[in-house]
Amino acid sequence: MVDCVPNVYIALRILLTLPVSVASGDRSFSKLKLIKSYLRSTMSQNKLVDLATISIECDKASKLDLRELVVDFAKRKARKIKF
Fold first, then answer.
1. pTM of whole model > 0.90?
2. pLDDT digits over 18-42, tens only?
3. DSSP 67
4. Domain definitions of the chain by residue range
């Protein structure tokens, strides 16, 4: 049968590999709605994208060692301009 209709066979293989639902996309948009409140609408696009990524990937973000991040941040160059 594959020899008779190869295009149909390829189309069926592609169809079987497509996801059944788009729940992950819907979840991402619902998280974005929660993040983008009135106060946050004045943020830059980069900061909004970063917050959305943290919210969507909350299981990975919860595993981060915050103490290590704070120490790394403190070791970096001072951001305050001295006059």
1. no
2. 666 656 666 677 777 777 665 566 7
3. H
4. 22-75
